[in-house]
Amino acid sequence: MQGWMEGFQASIDFIEQNLSEELSIDGIAARAALSPFYYQRIFGALCGMTVTEYIRARRMTLAAQELAGSEARVIDVAVRYGYQSPDSFAKAFQRFHGIAPSQAREPGASLRSFAPLHIKITLEGGNMLDYRIVEKAPFTIVGVKRRFNSETSYQEIPKFWSEWMTDRRGLRGVFGVCMDMDGKDFDYWIADNYVPWVDIPEGCGTCQIPGGLWAQFLCKGPLPDSLQRVNTQIWTEWLPSLRGYALAGNYSLEWYMPPAENPADTVSYICIPLKKLEDRAL
Question: pLDDT for 184-202, tens place per residue?
Fold first, then answer.
């Protein structure tokens, strides 16, 4: 899917060209023709870091080069790369390089460098990915939700599940649902199918999931490893080769089957909403 890859690389080039300017995830994602919701998830899978971590690493690299190779004042460099005070800049610089900004000019100073990313997908053998495209009617979930930041969600959502395990509130935990809020934060639901004639448990709410086309990916094996493995394959192998469809909606769904006696037989699914492209757009 060359056009998709070119768009994603264009977003990284846009970051590189504007490191001394204010950058927003909305503006970056627009260069890849993706929603901020999907862009951040794909970026993490492809690059192994968050968008913010990448921007910070590139800014710290350029800041060190500027300090080491010029007479620029630390405060001027700090402001140029988005820091409003010398203290906050110094702390970030220390974490990244291991030395203070003022030491960057010293002979033999050890500085770290993080090169710009260049996205390249290579085929390294046949990795099986079982999926099917299905059409689902709208349905309603009932459950508990919490707001998460995209930058910390991988660490915080498992904690949410651990807390829920001690207070299930009458829920089985059939679904894990991400619902985008504003590109930076999103709601994550631990939920079941809503049954109208059953009382909603205390502290729970409901949410309707739109109907439409879904790509439904089979994950088999112990959790969370099987989910994480398939999730990486979706964004790095399946999406770049996708034809005739595009991502739709700012939500995604994890669907958990009842636990298997043997963890190797555990089955779950990752469901991604799609829209069919018109022939002229193929």
Answer: 788 999 999 999 999 999 9
131-281 has which fold?
Answer: Multidrug-efflux Transporter 1 Regulator Bmrr; Chain A (3.20.80)
CB 245 within 8 A of CB 133: yes
pLDDT at 1: 44
Closest CA to 38 of 244, 237, 243, 251: 251
CATH superfamily of 2-105: Homeodomain-like (1.10.10.60)
Query: Crossing angle of helices 51-69/86-97, nearest 10°?
Result: 100
Domain ranges of the chain: 2-105, 131-281
Residue of higher predicted confidence among 110 and 271: 271
Between the CA atoms of 184, 148, 208 and 278, what dihedral angle is there, to the nearest 10 degrees?
Answer: 40
**How big is the chain, counted in residues?**
282
Spatial distance between the Cα atoms of 251 and 198, rounded to a whole number of angstroms: 26
* Residue 281: per-residue pLDDT: 46
